[in-house]
Amino acid sequence: MSREPETPWSVRFRRERQAAWVELEDLVSRCERGGLAALRPEQLSRLPVLYRAALSSLGVARASVLDQGLRLHLESLVARAYLVVYSPKRSLLEVLVPFATTGFPRAVRAIRWHVLVSAAVLLLGGALAWAMYGVDPEHYYLFVDGGMAAGRDPTASTEALRETLFGDDDGDLLAFASMLFTNNSSVGILTYGLGFVFGLPVVLLLLYNGMLLGAMSALFHERGLGVEWWSWVLPHGVTELLAIVLCGAAGLAVGQQLVFPGPHSRLHALTVVGRRMGAVVAGSVVMLALAAVVEGVFRQVVQSVPVRYVLAATFAALWCAYFVCAGRRQR
Amino acid sequence: MTTFEPTESVLTPEGFELRFGRATASERLVALAIDLGIVLLATFALVLLLWFTLGIGAAMLVAFLLRHGYFTWFEARWNGRTPGKRLFHLRVVRADGGPLTVETVLARNLTREVELFLPLTVLLQPDALFPDQVGWVRLVAVAWILGLFLFPLSNPHRLRIGDLLAGTRVVVTPPVALVHDLADVRRAGQEPRDGVFAFSAAQLSIYGEHELSVLEDVLRKAKRNATDPALVEVAKSIGRRIGFDDAAAVVGHEARFLREFYAAQRRHLEQQLLLGRRRLKKVPRTTKGARPS
User: How far apart, in whole angstroms, are the C-alpha atoms of residue A88 and residue B282?
Assistant: First the structure.
């Protein structure tokens, strides 16, 4: 009589379940290559069943099976299957629409105090530069370097300055708009990333941007071009500055969680705020794209000062309404 | 051979502890280099193409989108993978086991500007970033930015700052083949064999789980046909340690002896496990009368 010598019980355990594991492995490798779409409907319905079976096999194997080869296979199989079963399957539209209607305005409302502080820092920079320009116009060069000024400096004649506000240059509008967009977005993204260094660089960056604006404003006001200057800045500035302020606020919020994590561990606090701030920055980048379109196209086309103010006021009202009201209702 | 060590624990929403492999810094660096290579090539090709067709504006836009969108796009579409990561079976997963949402992917990739592109610029052309700065200012800036770049080396999970902010980890999930069961005598293509060697309960209560897994490794790595000198050596030392009476019968059949001992030992330890008794390591060798158990 042939006796089965000394067979561990795990041998039987494996014999009974192996077919299911092999089937699951096959489905998982298909999905890893081609996504869930690679499965036929009947295979798709098998997937969660097989996953749960493998999950329970792994639980048993960890507790009481001593075959390393088997345990490693199950660990890897279950981990891979988990990633397939729980892969978020959404189309681009299903991500973008909720983001625009609720996700973004809510994330901004969650950091409204940071937004106020961020705006205050920007204004402070502006006021500082304005005051220093009043003391001595030479200070202008501290805040605005030659490339940025593009001829708009204290030595320029008033007429030349007026030209820059109403210049109808026939340059490449798209090129101008994308340069503005990419530069501003890089600054915005940088601001968020720098939040990790305790928010300090964020404050500096906001101050610097405020100073740039403040110094230029002081120059134009001194020449009696104040009304025209703001009609040039505000149509796109409303959106652009708001976006920069939001990025700054995101950076500040990250920095704050790092310094004062509250009741949670520092890591946990960072994670919660980090995800939300990622959304704020992404939304801000979209805002900057809109601002660039306005700056690159509308402003070149619209030359009348009153119309420019109306445009700016409209944008301001729209953004206010959007951030205050959108996504209030629980869905 | 894949060396897969499931050490990164992640608790799933249903409360099960998954264990992934930990992605090493070098794997991640190579994957990153591949991804950067793709971004660079694509940018170069598209910028050239667009510059001459639609103008410099479109070219700049596409370069920006590639630089900031490539990682986010792929990680969101492919559930935590990019083409480079895919080659090494790397995955971004959430440390809390939840699904990888777009916000999470954004949070971890928006910091690349500070962590990656800034240090790269510093390394390649420091003058672009700090024109006419005093030497020591530049030195401090370079040190600071390199510090960010090297940050992952400072923690065991190899988290970079984006991972901290997003609450993600990069893990490795290589497929591990289901190897045959060494203790299963009814293996496909083989006649069931009778057990030849018998072991007493006392002989089986010496070794623990650790030794069992070492023995499993030895058996799996041993050559199939010829008698492996490693097997002979191991068989000898086990026979001596457990006091196997019929040492002469083992000679020439070491592989079989070890295989049967492995099966018997596993059966014994698993039985004990079911009774709630776990033995991880072998009992220490006692010198005569030195230590009463």
Answer: 47
